[in-house]
Amino acid sequence: MAVRINSTRLQLQPPAPFDFAATVDSHGWIALAPNLWDGGRRHWRRVEQLAGGKVVLIHVQTTRARRTTLQLDVDHPGRLTAREQDDVLARVGHMLRIDEDFAEFFELCGTRGERWARVSAGAGRLLRSADLFEDLVKTLCTTNIQWRGTCRMVENLVSEFGASHAGTQHKAFPGAQTIAAMPLEDFKARVNLGYRGDYVHRLATRVASGELDLESLRDPLLSTTEVKRRLLAIKGVGEYAAATLLMLLGHYDQLPVDSVFRQFVSTTYFGGATVTDRDAQSVYADWGRWKYLAYWFDIWPGRATLSDRVGVGFAPGPVHGLETGILDNAIITGPVLQKPVARLAVQHVSSRAALGAESLADLLRQHWQEAIAI
Question: Structure pTM?
Fold first, then answer.
């Protein structure tokens, strides 16, 4: 017997300024299951399993009357209780960082003028998942692998272990309890995560048993240094993963100092000269606790235009293990396969001339050795 699916409409009012499309499409998380994004319609869909176990499909878009008001259409079996409605609103608000105060950052952007004015118009938030377990697993799936491999692994995790939405074929991201309930070898046989399989299963087991309380890392009284220390204590989390997770947790006061950072700052601010890490970091010193976002929107200003033109899949950020290219004032990034001895070099394309999709594809294939599939 078919399950009847009902729909409930909710609204969420983010604080101004807020740019919905810029927030959802701010980095590569939007390309990972269970997220679905229609950029043309500015329509974001995602399946969530609520606290009580109900699986719902959430459609998010701005209302026609007010572009800053978010309209949530929730497809669900049975009745959506008041508590479940509050759960939906809290999850969407968290993913879009509705409760984070960016006033100081926007003010700093406004004083910079020019392209920073676009950021101060509401483009400063970076999409995250509804819970830290999902963000951590996805971050582990970005390490030492091409971006298409990350997408494949996350898709397989959702397909194999996610709870199904009754009205569609879509599934939610699996919780820690679901993964932990399966023996390690069976889990690794069903989803090929490589060496990450052990890390993900161990993480799920610790979270499910209560040994590891990931949500405690959201404590606003914890310093960035302390949060990073706790993250690095998790098996599989290194400097790159910690930098990404700190950003996802709302800590922007540390820069991801790696080869990408060094070369970008050298090329952009020092004419390609070799500089010390101290000098490189001094470029963003006056941004205070917003250093990470300043760097992110410095290296990421025209990405959306380029992605629309060639359909490149983007990685989570300019951190360790990512290649970056600069082309026609746009940024393209994607994880690369790393080896213990030889590592693919970061390719900076100096030409500012606009290239068509075919020329860009040829350039990527030549320099990036299939780092990104086009």
Answer: 0.80
